[in-house]
Protein 1
Amino acid sequence: MEILFWGTRGSLPCAVTSEMIRKKIKSALAIALEKKLSAFDDLDRFVETQLPFSVSSGYGCNTPCVEIIGGSESVICDAGSGLRDYGNWVMKNPGEKAKQSGQVFNIFMSHLHWDHIHGFPFFTPAYIPGNTINIFGFHENLEEAFKRQQAEPSFPVPLEVLSATINFTTLELEKEHSIAGFKIFGIEQNHPGKSYGYSFEKNNRKIIYSTDSEHKLDKKKPDEFIRFCKDADILINDAQYYLFDALETKENWGHSSNIVVTELAVRSNVKHLCMFHHEHTSDDTVLDKFLKETKRYLKLYDKSSSLIIDMAYDGMRITLEEEIPCEEPEKHVKQGLDTFIEEKDDLVIFNLAGRMDAVTCTDLEKNFLKQLDSGKKGFILNMKSLDYISSAGLRSVLLCKKQAAQANRQFLICELKGMVLNVFKIAGFSSFMDLDFSLQESINKITTP
């Protein structure tokens, strides 16, 4: 089985500008001068081994379209602008797919937002007599959405006049479906208008396609998703935002953060995570940094994890090789959170020690709410003895800050170090919170008129 990515961007296609190309050329020349490159024979090796991915290549421009290879017929996830490139390849590729009629294409829709269907009017095999295109999804208005985007005045060619046979099938969510040699299951996801994730299973291999899903940090939904993804070989997952953006400025926009998705992949015992549906405003350099920071967070979250993390890109191909049994890595023993509450002058100090995760952070939230009624002027979270924090812990910090603001109280965090400081930075919290305060500086800031 193989996975081939034809489109990996989210929301809308991302054009490559002349400025971007010039930037890549200048970066490549600068590195070549630094390496004293002199022979043309070395060019291929230089490009492959010496240039960062953001310079030698790029993450692509197309919106979601992913091909799963290995079934009895073509299997495609979503019909974003990448579907156009896939269709062009089908028409030009030598071999069995070169025949221009009689082919069957199975397209599985996550949802019906524009960026996931706007490639279909430009899918050349849909114009070829004798081809069959089966469009599957869990939304009841599948056909209506495809017809509407090709109706006047939006498009000159109505869906009804396309020469291929086009079938629309609404799938049942609680049922196993056998299509093109795969066992297929679905899961409802949190997204405006609802989206759905898919599990494709064949020959003891499991591929999860889960895009446009906003994972909230409550208990029920993550547990359901973890069961759905359990032991998957590949998890293709929406990871469009930094955690702070997902929790604050873009909450309820329907997309997830790299940190939450990494935690869910580890908890699901997924072997390979492919981050997907990339932010269309992020250039290749930004996405390179995003990937590096995500891998860094994985080691902070669970240094024993063997999870592979990649950033999907247009043209990326993943082959599922024969599985080699290996010993299960030893998991960390989970520890609790100790909270020592200290009242000093006109403020309350929460001295935190241990681990702040999905289980333990609720204790802080409860204690903080009780202390808000004390009438104190300000509140400080002292993290000097805190060894570990997860996305759930970060969410609790943000919740405490919001509650303090609503009560017209001052709120500061201080004494961050090691893993905790790194996670705050990776999650984007340094953009709105000062992470450098000492305890005494925090006390002075609140108590000094």
Protein 2
Amino acid sequence: MTKSLNIVVVEDHDALRAVTVEALGKHGHNVRGVDCAEALSDEPGPAPIDLLVIDLNLPGEDGLSLAGRIRAAQPDIGIIMVTARTQTRDRLTGYDSGADIYLTKPTSTDELLAAVRALTRRIKPEDPAAFACTLKPSSQTLHGPLGMIPLTGHDCALLAALIRAKDQQLETWQLITLTEKAVTEAGKKALEVQIVRLRKKFLQAGILEPSLKVVRGQGYRLCLKVAIRVD
């Protein structure tokens, strides 16, 4: 589910501003639009701004100046510049002025939404409490409510692959390959033993809900949200 951001679109083209505000609003964000930098200063809004979408060619104070001023005052705010300026030097100036992402016009709605999603991960990172436990590949350990549980290298590789996989699910042959064994009946049996061992590791870490589920005829699925921490 997309996290909701408080977004202000600074764009002097009325139709484009309206389309952008509508598109972002349809995806669950709280969005308002203004036609110039000066209007933004007079627009307190219902909540602090998380993200600005700024056109560079604005009347009055231009987008580069606005971005630099806002970035200096609010270092953590998200800034997306959307402009017809396409030269490399323009991009560099945009990033130097505080842009997180620099998009050139015409910009598709899908590209703008992807940029917003990318910044959402920084502005509103995942709540650690949403994860059942944490995997630390560097120390090959699993951390849960009951403390730290050591893992083997193969256990760690298998778990990390499942965490990163689409829908946290991999086929049997993929998991066997991760354990550096041949895709044979013996390899399947060895994988089953490893899955049982990993389930026990989750229990030892204090995770009582189901952790690894058999997907009949396919492979295995990780049923928990597990964070990967890179130290």
Protein 3
Amino acid sequence: MDYNTQRKKLPLPEYGRNIQNMVDYLFTIEDRDKRNKSAQVVIDVMGNLYPYLRDVAEFKHKLWDHLAIMSDFKLDIDYPYNPPTPDILTGKPKRVPYPVNNIKYRHYGYTIELMIGKIAEMEGEERDILIEQIANQMKKSYLAWNKDAVEDEKIFKDLRELSKGEVNIGADTIQLTDTKSIVGKPNKKKKQQQQHKKK
């Protein structure tokens, strides 16, 4: 029996062994023009695996790069793009810079702080609606971070602080969503686990 585990390892397994065999066959074609035309046929077949991307310019470039990789960068053809070099397989990717934002309360998140900054500049009914929605979102975020409980006054206090005193509300102004509605009832499995722990 001929098992795949006994065969040559595929450089790009997503294309399958048949396409790899087609790429290997290109090396046997001595006439350069014929080899170029055959390479284009192989690219077309590779593109047929992803028909929704086939006509995208960047994807075509990617296919030619993949052909170079599958031929171990040794195929002598006229590439329509600059072919990649073997070091792309060994080189380390560039470090992705991590966004560093000075977040005062991480459990609320940076977006909430930006939104609070915006509503502090607003006026009218729309501002009041947004304040109520943001305050409720802050409560949900707080409870996701600390499941026990949170007093509404704590949310109002943090909202005042984050808005630098521009948003000054309290329980007399806004009624926040009840904690039980946000957290919800624990399911039976969790309840049994909690009772088991107590024992």
Protein 4
Amino acid sequence: MAQAAANQELLDRLNELLTPVVRSEGLILVELQFRPEGSGLVLRLFVDRPEGGVSLEECAQVSRQASDLLDVEDVIPKRFNLEVSSPGLTRRLKTPRDFEIFAGRLVKMMVREPDGKMRTYRGLLKGIQGGEVILEVEGRLRAVPLEGVLRANLDVSF
């Protein structure tokens, strides 16, 4: 349990340090991962822009700035590899903030209905209100409790 708390503390500190770097480039830090892979450790930053996506040069710029800052702050005592990338066109939506940021975009959501059945919806994300994701499906609004959303992704297929 102490190790899990220490890991979370490190992730919180990394998030605190790196969010301003990402924002300075007009981007948002979507996700931060730090974990063992292969024979070493990898710190992976997923960055995005709500409108228009992220270029390779922007990822490289964030990588350079983050690397310099991490060298100075020395919060990770072991050697690690830093990767900065975009979550992609069909990125997953996980947090209430994601559902706010990407309102107006097409999404595909798998939900658990109140009767326990699973159903997939495709539609226009309207946002989130009172813990419910609002989705426009075939011209009708549908409110889905956030806890009922099993998986949600941006959708570019329709």
